[in-house]
Amino acid sequence: MADEALFLLLHSEMVAGLYRAAEQGEGENGRCTTKLESMGFRVGQGLIERFTKDTARFKDELDIMKFICKDFWTTVFKKQIDNLRTNHQGIYVLQDNKFRLLTQMSVGKQYLEHAPKYLAFTCGLIRGGLSNLGIKSIVTAEVSSMPACK
């Protein structure tokens, strides 16, 4: 439980620190999001390497996505993805109805405009993991109501 709290605090401080530096003129907001996404990409690559070292090869893209939703997400966020949808043409929608990195914020719409900064690292995490599994991807996040995200 302590490691989870440390991760949440570290993530919050990474986001706050980057955006604080941007406000002081050392960068711009778009660069902060890119930097967070890049950090997540590298962490995702390393985590997937570690998590898949003893697993059999995946048959297809859907098996990889199921692994991301069950094993990867459970290890990182202590719960499975709530919903995985696909159009069977390479587009997957992962939905978490109570995303851990957003639950520390207000449940209402008060902080909705700040949510994307807290999802950039996670988008990079998924993209890095998929990259190491041989899938080139574009990962975006959408928040319509807190703390759920797609």
Automatic annotation (TrEMBL):
Report the Pfam families cross-referenced here.
Answer: TRAPP (PF04051)
Coiled-coil features, chain-numbered ranges:
none
Which superkingdom heads the taxonomic lineage of this protein's source? Eukaryota
Q: Name one GO cellular component term.
A: trans-Golgi network
Keywords of the record: Endoplasmic reticulum, Golgi apparatus, Neurogenesis
Q: Which InterPro entries match?
A: NO_sig/Golgi_transp_ligand-bd, TRAPP_component, TRAPPC6/Trs33
Question: Which function does this protein serve?
Answer: Component of a transport protein particle (TRAPP) complex that may function in specific stages of inter-organelle traffic. Specifically involved in the early development of neural circuitry, likely by controlling the frequency and amplitude of intracellular calcium transients implicated in the regulation of neuron differentiation and survival.
Q: Where is this chain's protein located in or outside the cell?
A: Endoplasmic reticulum; Golgi apparatus, cis-Golgi network
Please give the biological process terms from Gene Ontology that the record holds.
Answer: endoplasmic reticulum to Golgi vesicle-mediated transport; nervous system development
The answer to keyword tRNA processing applying to this record is no
Q: Which family does it belong to?
A: Belongs to the TRAPP small subunits family. BET3 subfamily.
Q: What is this protein called?
A: Trafficking protein particle complex subunit 6B
